[in-house]
Amino acid sequence: MRKQVDMKKRSISLALAVIFATSSTSPAYAYLDPGTGSLILQGIIGAVAGGLYFFRSYWMKAVALITGGKPSSSKHASTEKVENADREK
After folding, report:
1. How many domains does the chain have?
2. What is the pLDDT of residues 60-78, one digit of tens each?
3. Quick check: is 61 in a domain?
4. Is residue 81 situated within a structural domain?
5. Residue 22 and residue 10: Cα distance in Å, rounded?
6. Residue-by-residue DSSP string for the chain
7. Could you say which of 26, 33, 48, 84 has the lowest number of CB atoms within 10 Å?
8. pTM attached to this predicted model
9. pLDDT per residue over 19-59, tens digit each?
């Protein structure tokens, strides 16, 4: 019970600190050229792609753990199909 109270206090303190920090900013008067915008966009796209890959890999491991099978990658599965097709000939 004590840990929950401490966690609530920390959460409230963090929320208040974030609100204070974002509400007390002053204008930057900065110029962002197209190169800077492109760099920011590239970083965002890379972060999203990396995050999706990270969560996909752990999702496949979790599903394999629940179903009792081995986690299979798409590359490995396609290699098996080619090998099976060669054996059938």
Report:
1. 1
2. 888 888 888 776 655 555 5
3. yes
4. yes
5. 18
6. -HHHHHHHHHHHHHHHHHHHHHHT---------HHHHHHHHHHHHHHHHHHHHHHHHHHHHHHHHHHTS----HHHHHHHHHHHHHHH-
7. 26
8. 0.43
9. 988 887 777 788 878 899 899 999 999 999 999 999 999 88
